[in-house]
Amino acid sequence: MSLFGGSISRSAPSRVPVGARVVWRGPLAWSAGAPVRSAKDTGGRRLAVFGPCGATDAELIRLVWSADLRALDMAATAWAGAYTLVFDDGYGVCTVWADPAGAAPVYTARRDGAQVWASSSLALASLLDAEPDTAWLAAHLANPTGWVPGRSAWTGVEQVPPGHRWSATASGASGFTPFWRVPELAWADAVRRLRADLAGGVRIRVSGRAASSDLSGGLDSSTLAALAAQCGPVTGLTYHPKGRESGGDIDHARAVARVFPVIRHRFMALGPEHLPFTGLGSLPLTDEPAPSAMVHAQLGAQLDMLDSEGIDVHLTGDGGDSLFMPPPVHMADLARSGRFLRLAGDAQAWARLYRSSPWTAMAAACNAPGKLGGASAPRPWLTRYSLDLADAVTAPYSEVNGLGYADRHLLEEARYVGRSAATENQLAAAHGIEMHSPFTDTRIVESVLATPAPERWSAHRYKPLLTDVAARLLPPAVLQRGAKGVFAADHHHGLRANKAGVLDLTGGYLADLGLVHPAALRSLLGNAVLGVDIPWGLIEPVLGTELWLRSSTAAGQAVQWEETA
Predict the structure, then answer these.
(1) Any domain includes 452
(2) Which of 20, 107, 265, 351 could disulfide-pair with 257, CB 3.0 to 4.6 Å?
(3) Bridge partners, 8 (sequence order)
(4) How far apart are the C-alpha atoms of 159 and 140, rounded to whole Å?
């Protein structure tokens, strides 16, 4: 896994991961396989940008010569990609900008008088020999998209709040300062900016490299595959059940590949060996529990296949659903602003779409907006201790107070997807693949947030904003389709085939910590074995967290550190 970081101290020895390259010293900055570019001026000021970034070298040079914090604040979101800026002012202050969308998270800790920071909480946990943080785990189980200030999955390791800069001095002083504000854009301007930034984000990742992209036939992955094809040859990967090679998603994926002859279309047949919950052995340890833990048999096989074909970088559509297909949480904003005619119309449209009563949506919009976003779903498998602990440590993001309910919901979802995508990238690195999710880039999230929330939601058009972005890029059949196929049946089949291993996960570290009721989990899974639909999206994080905890005892050996020469 690639990572980067640094430290600042008056006297403590400088440590770096084994094999890391020192970017500069005093304060220390290093990279262990992460792309980095740097610039400096004659006055001792230095600037580094880590990660994929659309800035030119000339722009970085002008930026470091300006030495203007306001210019640096703007630069932290000025270019396509998911990147981290680091600035040494030449007078003993080191400043790190945390990506507002959360796709390039930054963590800090203290060790032996030194302030250390890194792109991986696991790396800092290895340095500190830290244990998992029980309070963070409780919050993660109760509300994975919630913000837990001052913490991470590891004790003693703190995530820098997204959209903040962290400044530290050798004397030990440090602090966070917000630098980001959501822009406002008209729909047409947001479409143009999204189109340009998505193209730029794809280009800086795949140009000149052996690249691949998911090509499921859905709008998200088809857009990325088409944009990658405009940069050169790309492998498009389509899953399909064994014995079924046409129809639905498969035909739409073929339609995209026909439009772009440079797409090398590859198919991956899914059989029993790829079912969810298969092969629940120990996964590579990551910063936090990975969302794909329960389907890693499929993901791992895909990554191994791409590695065998010489692929260097793979694009995924993660984040697209959160951005472009939001739940109707905007109705809470309509209710609060007194737009009752629009509220009634959207509630009726929602009711027709989900075969429910419009009064249910209207009541939720006025009295319980959490129900519109699914946040208030009951979780009877969590103990009272777990829920109380989660409530005690979870707080709203500090800069969301001026945002409407729909914007706050989208931002929380986007930051969770961005952070978890970084975790998925660590899993991919264990298979020799560099994985990226351009929909989690800050400028993409910004452009979506910049549009009025009621315009982003539609019961009549599928992903209206992304559809407008991809107009004239994709075949009409793909642009005009509705939702992709769903695969809940695979979870039932996988659970039946791997019942013993899954039930074993219900009693373990989480139960010992007093966070879950094993009996409630076993009862729910028992119903699922019989075919009863259960909230997989809420249950899988619990099982994945238990699996992660069983690997966490190896944290001290996950990243080896050494003193610099």
Answers:
(1) no
(2) 265
(3) 115
(4) 14
Residue length, the chain? 565
Whole-number Å distance between alpha carbons of 263 and 236: 6
CA distances to 33, 417, 541, 543 from 522, in Å: 42, 28, 15, 11
Strands (E), 288-426: 313-315
503: buried, middle or exposed (CB in 10 Å: 19+, 13-18, 0-12)?
Answer: middle
The letter for the amino acid at 194 is L
User: What pLDDT is recorded for position 261?
Assistant: 94
* 461-473 mean pLDDT: 93
Beta carbons within 10 angstroms of residue 395's beta carbon: 13
Which residues span the domain enclosing 47? 3-182
The count of domains in the chain is: 1
Provide the mean pLDDT of the chain.
Answer: 92
Instruction: Say if residues 84 and 38 touch (Cβ distance below 8 Å).
Output: no
**Two tokens at 15?**
């440590």
Domain assignment of residue 336, yes or no: no
Q: Report the C-alpha gap between 496 and 513 in whole angstroms.
A: 28
| Residues near 11 by beta carbon (within 8 Å), at least 6 away in sequence | 113
pTM for the model stands at 0.94
Q: Assess if residue 134 is contained within a domain.
A: yes
Residue 488: pLDDT band (50, 70, 90) is: low
Q: What is the pLDDT of residue 484?
A: 57
Backbone angles phi, psi at 166, to 5 degrees: -110, 125
Residue 17 inside a domain? The answer is yes
Return the CATH number at 63: 3.60.20.10
CA atoms within 13 A on the CB side of 379: 27
Over the stretch 197-238, which tens digit does the pLDDT of each residue have?
999 999 999 999 999 999 998 999 999 999 999 999 999 999
